[in-house]
């Protein structure tokens, strides 16, 4: 197990996110690599993301999938866009907006 992570910071729809990627978290005897991908919202802290209502997601994935997508930043962008098109993400955004509104009662 290797603990060297590539760290990428980017903005996704106004949310600053940190992407941590370990290409070879586990190497199997047949030469395949299991990568570890972590995504966390930084600003605003713990802001909901399409793949996590808590703003943090840890995901183990075949490293080739991430490499073939163009790297961790491109993979996360595509993952978020796909998940962001789902109904559950729109419901989560509506709940977040409602909780951000001030209530007089």
Produce a short descriptive summary.
The protein has 105 residues and is an alpha+beta fold. The protein has three helices and four strands; from the N terminus they run ββββααα.
Keywords:
105 residues, alpha+beta, 4 strands, 36% strand
Describe the structure.
The chain is an alpha+beta fold and about 100 residues long. It has one domain (about 5-100). The chain has helices spanning about 65-70, 70-85, 85-100; strands at about 5-10, 15-25, 35-45, 55-60. The N and C termini lie far apart (about 55 Å). The mean pLDDT is about 85.
Overall number of strands: 4
Order of helices and strands: EEEEHHH
Strand-pairing-aware structural class: alpha+beta
Q: Please bin the fraction of helical residues.
A: 25-40%
The radius of gyration computed from the alpha-carbon positions, rounded to a whole number of angstroms, is: 16 Å
Read across the widest sheet, the strand sequence of neighbours is: 1-2-3-4
**What is the first-to-last residue Cα distance?**
54 Å
- Name the beta content range: 35-45%
Q: Which term fits the overall shape?
A: elongated
Average pLDDT taken over every residue: 86
Could you give a short account of the major beta sheet?
Answer: 4 strands, antiparallel
Number of domains: 1
> How many DSSP H or I helices?
3
Poorly predicted regions = none
